[in-house]
Structures are given as C-alpha cells and as structure tokens.
Amino acid sequence: MDKRTNTPPTISRTPPELETIPAALFVGGDILRKLWRTPGGTAAAVCLDMLKQPHLLIGGSTGSGKSVLINSLIYTALYKSPNRYQFILIDPKRVELIDYKPLPHTISYNSEMPDILDALQYSIDLMENRYRLMQRQRIKKSNAADIFIIIDEYADLVIQAKKQVERYIIRLSQLGRAANIHLILATQRPTRDIITGAIKVNLDSRVGLRCPSPQDSRNIIDIKGAETLPRYGYGYYRTAGGLELVSIPMTDPGELANRVKWWTNQNKSIFSFLHRPG
Fold it and tell me: CA-to-CA distance for 7 and 224, rounded, in angstroms?
C-alpha cells in the first residue's frame, strides 16, 4: 500500500534492465519509484517538477545524461514559461551551454574563471538587492523573475577555486529560494571532496544518474543504487517528498535548436523587461 494515499501502488512496466531494484529502495514492502513516461506530457512534467525545486543537484559519471537533462530543463522552461525564467550560464567546458548564449533570457554566459567568479558575485549582489526590496515592501517572497544559475561542470570550478566557489554556492543555496534565485549544479565527480556536506545540506533536491560506485550514489541520493542503473535514460530523483525512479527525458536536438533560434530571432525590445532582473 502507498502510505501517503492508502491506495495500492501502480507500478508501470519496468524495462528488463531495471527488474532488479536495489534492496535499499524497498521500504515496508513498497518500491519507492515513479516512472514518468511519454507520451502524455509526462516528460515535461518531470522537468517542470525539477524547475519548481529551490535548487537541484545532478550527479553521474561521464556520458550518463547530465547534459541531456539540463537541455531538457532549459527547453521546458522556454516552452512552458518563457516570460518567467532567466539564466546565468556557467560553462567551464566551454561547449555545453554555448548554444544558449544568444537567448534573450540569458543574463550572462561565462566560461573563464574570472568571469565565473564575477557572475557568482553578481548573483549574490542581486540576491541581496532583492532582499532589501522585500524588506522595504514587507514581503517574504520576491515577485521578481526566477533566475537559474546553471553550472556544468561544478567539479571544474572546485578544482580551480574551491574556497571562493564554495562560499558563493553555500550562500546562494541558503538564501536564494525566497529571492527566486535557483542553482542547478551538474557534476561528473559526485565525490565527497566535490559535493561536501555544506553543499548538500541546502540542495536536498537531487538527481542521481549512473555513477561509478555505491559511495558516489550515497553522496548524491543518500543510498546506494545509482551505480546499478543503465548507462542512459534513467535516474533516481530525490526531493523532500521521497525518492523516485524517473525516466530522464531527452529533447530532440533539432527541436531544441529550432526553439533557441526562434527566440533569438525575435525583436529584442519585447524582452527588455527580462534584463531588469532586480
């Protein structure tokens, strides 16, 4: 029985490679999983759910689908709520997020370390300005646009400037929610020296993709199991509501390119309000 609804759980047909669910995922005989499936809009549903979280941590080994998920999140944001979301893109690899640089929704694209640190400091300043405005207005939640700080690959930043980067990330994760400033961190090295306890405590929404070891799985989703996933297509999605096995949606690259091109070619004047993020 589903303890939250007192109804029998509905288990979708599981692909053969997922028939063996790790024992750690059994609680009281129930399987803590939900397969978000297409068609029917469920691919967009899981991305929308992730975009509603205060912050999101995505961890998995090389080629496990981190960039695929980030692309789907950006596509969903552009498709479902294009007037609501803005992006600060941090791309130390220089090739993962470059296609989104021309978007009118992109406040800044940063690939060099000095620019990345400036962008994180700008995010802190913006957050504090929003809090001052909230104080003057006597409100507890900002009415300004949602800004997503998307970092792919977080481990590269830690290796180059651990103390500075962690200080910025911890402060943003602690205070960003009420200011509508959200972090999406992706890393192919979900180890304890990269994803520290101080980072994890404020990023309680996480996606664990295929990873090398049980210890890496525990560091992302607090239990082992992600190391047994297929290389592509599935991940464990942990939120405050529990743990679910999700089918990671993949956006067709051609459709994504068309969406970005369409927004880029629009008259920039109609998006002028987007570039007043404060």
Answer: 27
Q: Which of 31-40, 137-146, 265-274 has the highest mean pLDDT?
A: 137-146
* Model pTM score: 0.84
